[in-house]
Amino acid sequence: MPFAPGGVLLERERELATLRDGLDHAGAGEGTLLLIEGPAGAGKTVLAREARAAAERARMMPLEARGSELEQPFAFGVVRQLLEPVISKEPGQAYLFAGAAGPAARLFEPGEQRPLDAGAGFEALHSLYWLVVNLTDQAPVLVLVDDCQWADQDSLRFLAYLAQRIEGLPVTMLLTGRPPDAGADEAGALWVQLASRPAAAALYPRPLSE
Fold first, then answer.
1. Cross-strand bridge partners of residue 207
2. CA torsion 166→171→176→181, rounded to 10°?
3. Considering the entire predicted model, what is its pTM?
4. Where do runs of H (alpha helix) occur along the chain?
5. What pLDDT does residue 121 have?
6. What is the pLDDT of residues 34-46, one digit of tens each?
7. CA–CA–CA angle 98, 96, 75 (5° rounding)
8. DSSP H/E element including 203
9. Span 122-162, pLDDT tens digits
């Protein structure tokens, strides 16, 4: 998985190598979970952009979203960001919602305010998982979510659900976020759960030298 030459990013060779390996695994049908954790200004977003550019060059399908404090109260807001662009490009393609992915179609109906279960029950998470699986029939997929510390809880539950079932899928999950505070809320607890998964590769970018 080639990254752009020219040494654009300094002192990030280890991080770029890990991201490259993760994308390569997805191309080989081996799901990978990558986490980039660090305080504001650590360069998480820049690394995520490099990974997205590399995925596009490798003809992977990038699904991209960013958590926002303003949108945090809205259920499945990050999931909508991830999937709405690709669904809008495939109007009338019933295969996207074939089989167990069927219930997820309600999330993307125009004017739908509270689709699926607000509490992100099993049916909601399972149908969204199968929607991602159906997308992998077209190409390996990069699921990229920046600023996970501000993602809504239902979307975080979906990301945790997908991470538990990523083995054997041509999917790379790349999530960035700030370290959770002591006594973290449910969002922080879900982030800790993701980081503690045995198959997760966590990156902690160091401050740059002078």
1. none
2. -10
3. 0.87
4. 13-27, 44-57, 77-88, 122-135, 153-164, 186-195
5. 80
6. 999 999 988 999 9
7. 100
8. strand 200-203
9. 888 999 999 999 999 999 999 999 999 999 999 999 999 99
Per-residue pLDDT at 196 exceeds 50: yes
165's CB contacts (< 8 A; 6+ apart) are: 129
Cα–Cα–Cα angle for 42, 176, 89, nearest 5°? 130
Spatial neighbors of 130 by CB under 8 A, at least 6 apart, are: 99, 100, 101, 104
Q: Which two tokens stand for residue 105?
A: 């179609």
pLDDT at 118 over 70: no
CA 66, distance to chain mean position in Å, is 9
Residue with tokens 């990050």: 78
Which structure tokens are listed for 118? 């607000």
Q: CB of 202 within 8 A of CB of 35?
A: yes
Closest by CA to 83, choosing from 20, 150, 131, 15, is: 131
